[in-house]
LacI family transcriptional regulator
Amino acid sequence: MNKKFLAGAALLGALTLVAAGCSSSNGTGGNGEEGGDELITVGFAQTGSESGWRSANTESMKEAFSKENGFDLKFNAADNKQEAQIAAVRSFINQGVDAIVIAPITVDGWDDVLTEAKDAGIPVILEDRTVSASEDLYASWVGLDFEQEGKTAGEWAVENADGSNLVILEGTTGSSAALDRATGFGAAIEGSDITTLDSQTGDFTRDGGKKVMEGFLQKYGDDINLLFAHNDDMGLGALDAIKAAGLTPGKDITIVTIDAVKDGMTALANGEFNFIVECNPLLGEKAADLVKAVLAGEDVEKKTIVPDQSFTQEQAAEVLDSRPY
Ligand code: AHR
């Protein structure tokens, strides 16, 4: 069977399910195997497993795209390598899946494979990060306002640590999360008395954060008194380097991060971090709803932004036990 036919058949199947009133947006309805209906086959190309945030995001996606919710999920994690992620998307196209969901590692480089998916009649939904490719090449995107996250972090830094010497641990080079957070933070500290000593990528990992922070400490020693890490995990890695250098995190060095995962919030509640801007990883349910709506031929929003909060040390201590991830 050719791919266009498969996609068309899948669309028909999905339309039938929706027409039968079986579509579920909260995971409690049933168009799964038990009722004898066909499952919607979805290929999900995840970035990798670089951080606590990523684990929570993967879990949310797997939960939402479950058999009980009417999906047959084909999952691939690309170990943070864009070539591997593109290869996974190509493989989903070749398998003739009904829809593809991508958490794009980097912004650029998606035009060709997205065009191939479009030519095969397979709709693509983006989750988490954005791409620079034309909006015509994907059906919808659900994610976070990374620029605002960076701005919120920068505004807190100006209010609470103006005059500091800053180092920055950047996320994966070329990712929208790193690019937009850098833009937002940079705009917020512009005109302040914060001096940026250095800024390097730690690739959103604990190991990366630790290694880069060790290098910063060797180079600048205790001149550093402010750290902005693009995610909790790099900040957590940096804690080891800071302590090994005989400094007290949260006191000698003010630490601002993004994500608000359990380990980050614990460090914040313990006084080792000073401020966290949340980045909500629970995008699965919305992504699954979008896939069903697109396959049913419904009009969907091109962009859906999930709101984030931010936390001081006191607020982290209050909510720590009730955090879902
Ligand atoms: O794209 C979201 C970012 O990716 C998260 O902030 C980071 O932890 C993850 O790896």
